[in-house]
Amino acid sequence: MHNHKELLNHLKPLCNNPKLWDAFVEYLEYHIENHTRIMEQTDNQDLWKRSQGSLAILRKLHSLREEVNVKEIS
User: Fold this and answer.
1) Widest distance between CA atoms in the chain
2) What is the Cα–Cα distance from 63 to 71, expressed in whole angstroms?
3) Range(s) of the domain holding residue 55
């Protein structure tokens, strides 16, 4: 089992390659927009909660680069 720092080290190639990172961010932003739209338009409380949870995870992934590079400095 890997510890947190080791897991972040495995993600450095993604986070530090501008072409890969930009494609990943575009993918995240596409899904962020979709879930935001769902939350704005739905009356279904369960769907709203699922989208809210998805948005939290997507935003966490969006900040992955900072987490990987900050842990590198620490």
Assistant:
1) 45
2) 13
3) 4-73
